[in-house]
Amino acid sequence: MGNLIDGEIIAEKIKAEVNRDITSLNADGINLKLVAVQVGENPASAVYVKQQKKNCEKAGITYELKTIPAEIETVALLSKIEKLNNDRSVTGIILQLPLPEGIDVKRIQSSIHPFKDVEGVNPANLGWIVYGKPSLAPCTALAVKEIIDSTGVDLYGKEVVMVGHSDIVGKPVALLLVDKFATVSICHIGTSKAGMLEEHVRRADILIVAVGKANLIPGGWIKQGAVVIDVGINRVGDKIVGDVEFETAKEKASLITPVPGGVGPVTTAILLRNVVKAAQWLKKQ
Ligand code: NAD
Q1: Is the CB of 163 inside a 6 Å radius of any atom of ligand 1?
Q2: Calpha distance 2→203 (Å, rounded)
Q3: What pLDDT, in 10s, does the model give residues 174-207?
Q4: Distance CA 105, CA 230 (A)
Q5: Which residue's C-alpha comes closest to atom 41 of ligand 1?
Q6: Mind listing the domains of the chain with CATH numbers?
């Protein structure tokens, strides 16, 4: 594999733990059930749903898709979530995005019970990251942390550059890593517009990119020996690529995640782990 980080291997380890935990929960009479809420039709989310169902069923988690007509209003959707919050047979809830225009996404996300919020989008769960005690955190952010941990790199005092500042990747990743005493810079569209992106990227001992623009980061910008984690997913012709110019970047990086096969499979495995964590907490209630 050379300097490639194999996300599948990391994912398999997580899934093995997940399987053990599920066996033990089942032995205690607890069955796991994940409900995915999808509002309206969306081809992109249909692909995710199919994948989630397959992965859950393989792990022994019941997966149910609730499809809700696109015309629903925020208040009516809130009461549907409330029903799932109160249903003891439901141990995890996923809200498929995007939601139709007009629905208050943040209000819906905050209505998911924090113990059932397996995607870590409720402000209470995001707040635990600020406190340095992440629990049900966003899956991709946890996947990035897991990948860094798997490399054995000591984050203390390292220059980390996070490109992208979304609520589910960039911001939580930065918080997770700053708590390990890395020096973390968060770059975004404003950094690019100011012409400063290259300068920041060149400094990075650990570079994480989550933007969604193919080849945004030329390989020549990568510091020799840096660890590069590419979260981006972009379709270019019939190929899926990341945000980093892979062929040139891998010549400079000490370790690099491929796309596909890097962050993606780890994120999928972390979702299963979050479903297990949620069920373990509910068991204690
Ligand atoms: P988002 O669209 O919410 O945010 C994009 C970020 O990129 C913003 O911070 C924006 O300011 C920044 N940005 C946009 N143009 C830029 C530029 N020219 N220079 C610098 N920064 C720029 O993104 P997201 O939801 O975090 O997703 C980012 C990418 O990661 C997407 O490709 C998405 O498909 C992918 N993703 C992958 C996984 C996975 O499991 N592998 C999970 C989630 C997201």
Answers
A1: yes
A2: 23
A3: 999 999 999 999 999 999 999 999 999 999 999 9
A4: 27
A5: 264
A6: 29-116 (3.40.50.10860), 139-264 (3.40.50.720)
